[in-house]
Input
Amino acid sequence: MADKKINVEGKEKKGMGLSTKIFLALIIGALLGVVLHYFMPESLADFRDKYIVEGVFYVVGQGFIRLMQMLVVPLVFCSLVCGSMAIGDTKTLGKVGVKTIVFYIFTTALAVTIALSVAYLINPGIGLDMDSIQRSEVSSANTETKLTETLLNIIPKNPIGAMASGDMLPIIVFALFVGIMLAKLGSKASTVATFFSQFNDVMMEMTMAIMKIAPIGVFCLIARTFANLGFSAFQPMLKYMGSVVLALMLQCFVIYQILLFVFTRLNPLKFIKKFLPVMGFAFSTATSNATIPMSIDTLDKKMGVSKRISSFTIPLGATINMDGTSIMQGVAVVFIAQAYGIDLTIGNLATVVLTATIASIGTAGVPSVGLVTLAMVLNSVGLPTEGIALIMGIDRILDMIRTAVNITGDAVCTTIVAKQEAALDKEVFNEG
Output
């Protein structure tokens, strides 16, 4: 594992990494925006507003946002089909599969709820008047929709129509249904299953290609924001970061450890101490997939969890259990809604919990892909996706933290399931 860590980090050191470029673009864009806001001569104000701020910055920034929006439907559909195919396969594993999936879905829904609660406690977006610079999109999030209608609307009358209009909840339901049926058919539908798997690879590659121009898009979007708002945009961004980190810490060190103790009566402090190196590795790489071998090995040698259990639950968790990502999305929804002065109804919040929970199924365990699926969550409640630009530049550090939370949730679930299936050696767990 040490060699793998060196290799992963070595790639980051070949020139400037993408996350570094995005962060620098955020800083430089903010500084340029402040200069344009406070120090541009009045004689050049019209030129600044017409040709720079609402010209170049607007066109390039919105072009980048549209490229991200272009990815949402095909990426989410294919990733959910592939993720639900994996879930379908778990039927052959009986009780272990059912327990694992129920636990993952439950903790993800709980994570989003905690994120929304923390966000409304801190109110990170209040004071950031994005509505004053929003050009044409008018959100429909404040339109009252009955919860019963919201529930019925998740069943698509026309899946193709839902894809064309970007109506995400029906798309999610249809994708899950397709994936489960493909898993049930097995080899009979191997050609179709292979198509979706390969097309998912294509969409991930396309995502990575578009992310390469993210620094330019972030620079223009942030420069435009600060050119209009000045220094008043800084404090809400710091409050957003604080909200996400607080919710992540609550999920990792409170919720998970309570669940561990309640279901196993094992010492949570011992668990944290033994699993801390894996959390550190996940933090440094920001990818759940890279930690799979290390997680399985640590659970086996330090906690006494049978590889018969962990070799199934850990890879599955890297596919469908993204609590940290869901927390970011929950806080981001509230942050962006408040920034644009949009009130979210109870139905909207229920939709966020449902969408973020289901969206975690099939989300690739690679850095920053949660930002793309965030666009889907925003679309589900009618919020403007432009708000993603505010958090993209500071997302890397949050991505590292939430990856550590994601893999900790996988390990807690694995330990609980192993204990219930008599596949955990308590003497090994209690050593040291």
